[in-house]
């Protein structure tokens, strides 16, 4: 059996790493049902600290194809990926194409496979923010509707798919991000030196990330968020912010100078192990990232989401994730509330830490 894995962004590297490990385990245990994995890296994330370091740390096999698409408008990126992925699929003729999450790489991979009548498996299917202004929402909906196997991480995701009359080929797998966090948290604790490198102590800082287009491409939202982060850093505790290239560019375009935001300590994007360590010892996490919302929950740290909605409703329902939007005063108010939150994990919401194994087993049975 041959499958092609299509990835291009940080969260996809993390998820794919766990599935690749599960494929290796399957091949050891089932000599007569070996799965051959071909990896395509679209190049959507091309910065070293957002790409190559993840492959080395997470022990992901080197990509068989690197498309080097890089940055650009949504149409340019998706269209270029579509052309290049189609060429690879025509050459490789896989049994399955596996896509992850909701990026332009996800959509391009799913469409290229569908056009060539190659069945698509979508890992992290069924997520909905119900905000179609977000490119990610469009990507995930379209990917779900052309997929043959849909691996839903939660009951909410299952319900979302059923509401769109998608029931065939749907499996509740659990969340591969939980697999990854459980697998790597001890490794991070033993190997990451990020806290000492930054000269910070456990529980003395907030961790923040901002990268979503709805925030970076809107001057009002961008300004509101960074004024709030700066105020928190000046009045409460230092805010550590790994700076995404898109966000750096947006700040410069809007004349928000990094040196004037003295409450925020800007650092370069960090590796997955360093991020896990930063998450584990923050007192509050502020983010517009879906993946980091969940990682905050896994780490037992209160989260403030810098958006008006989230795909991960379970964290909000459990009171550990607070939706704050992008208004300065609201974020500051929610920060005060977050300091009082006691995060208690509930069993089974995101699976049992073996989602990747379930996904590979289902793929093997479907060949």
Describe the 3D structure.
Helix 13 links the parallel strand 11 and strand 12 (303-305). The chain is built from 16 helices and 13 strands. It is α/β, with parallel strands linked by helices. The longest helix has 20 residues, at 10-29. Helix 3 (74-92) crosses helix 4.
Q: What is the overall shape?
A: globular
Give the number of domains.
2
**What's the number of helices?**
16
Q: Which strand order spans the largest sheet, edge to edge or round the barrel?
A: 3-2-1-4-5-6-7
Q: Give the amount of beta strand, in percent.
A: 5-15%
Give the second-level CATH assignment, the architecture of the largest domain: 3-Layer(aba) Sandwich
- Average pLDDT rating: 94
Largest sheet: 7 strands, parallel
Structural class: alpha/beta
Number of strands: 13
The CATH topology of the largest domain comes to Rossmann fold
Tell me the CATH superfamily of the largest domain. Answer: Glycogen Phosphorylase B
Ranges where pLDDT stays below 50 over 5 or more residues in a row are none
H and E order: EHEHEHEHEHEHEHHEHHEHEHEHEHEHH
Report, as a whole number of angstroms, the end-to-end distance: 7 Å
Helical fraction equals: 40-55%
CATH class category name of the largest domain:
Alpha Beta
Overview in brief:
The protein has 367 residues and is an alpha/beta fold. Helix content is 48%, strand content 14%.
Strand-helix topology:
Layout: E1 2-7, H1 10-29, E2 36-41, H2 52-57, E3 65-66, H3 74-92, E4 96-100, H4 104-115, E5 120-123, H5 135-145, E6 149-152, H6 155-163, E7 170-172, H7 176-191, H8 194-198, E8 206-209, H9 213-216, H10 219-235, E9 239-242, H11 245-253, E10 264-267, H12 272-281, E11 284-287, H13 290-299, E12 303-305, H14 313-317, E13 321-323, H15 328-338, H16 355-365
Parallel strand pairs: 1-2, 1-4, 2-3, 4-5, 5-6, 6-7, 8-9, 8-11, 9-10, 11-12, 12-13
């Amino acid at each position: 059996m041959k499958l092609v894995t299509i990835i291009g962004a940080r969260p996809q590297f993390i998820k794919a790493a766990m599935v690749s490990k599960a494929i290796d385990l399957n091949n050891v245990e089932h000599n007569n049902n070996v799965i051959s994995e071909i990896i395509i890296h679209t190049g959507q994330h091309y910065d070293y600290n957002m790409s190559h370091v993840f492959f080395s740390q997470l022990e992901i096999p080197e990509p068989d194809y690197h498309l080097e698409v890089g940055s650009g408008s949504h149409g340019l990126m998706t269209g270029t990926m579509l052309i290049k992925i189609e060429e690879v699929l025509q050459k490789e003729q896989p049994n399955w194409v596996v896509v992850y999450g909701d990026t332009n790489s996800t959509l391009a991979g799913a469409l290229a496979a569908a056009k060539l009548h190659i069945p698509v498996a979508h890992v992290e299917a069924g997520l909905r923010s119900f905000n179609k202004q977000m490119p990610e929402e469009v990507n995930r909906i379209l990917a779900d509707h052309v997929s043959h196997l849909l691996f839903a991480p939660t009951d909410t995701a299952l319900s979302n798919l059923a509401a769109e009359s998608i029931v065939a080929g749907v499996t509740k797998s659990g969340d591969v991000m939980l697999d990854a966090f459980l697998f790597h948290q001890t490794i991070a604790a033993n190997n990451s030196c990020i806290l000492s490198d930054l000269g910070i102590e456990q529980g003395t800082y907030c961790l923040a990330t901002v990268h979503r287009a709805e925030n970076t491409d809107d001057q009002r939202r961008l300004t509101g968020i960074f004024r709030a982060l700066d105020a928190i850093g000046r009045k409460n505790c230092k805010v550590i912010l790994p700076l995404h290239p898109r966000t750096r560019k947006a700040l410069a375009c809007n004349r928000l100078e990094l040196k004037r935001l003295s409450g925020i300590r800007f650092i370069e994007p960090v590796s997955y192990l360093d991020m896990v360590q930063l998450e584990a010892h923050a007192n509050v996490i502020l983010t517009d990232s879906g993946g980091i919302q969940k990682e905050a929950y896994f780490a037992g740290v209160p989260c403030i989401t810098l958006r008006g909605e989230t795909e991960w409703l379970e964290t909000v329902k459990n009171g550990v994730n607070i939706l704050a939007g992008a208004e300065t005063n609201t974020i500051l108010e929610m920060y005060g509330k977050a300091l009082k939150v006691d995060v208690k994990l509930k069993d089974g919401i995101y699976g049992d830490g073996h989602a990747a194994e379930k996904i590979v087993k289902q793929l093997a049975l479907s060949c």
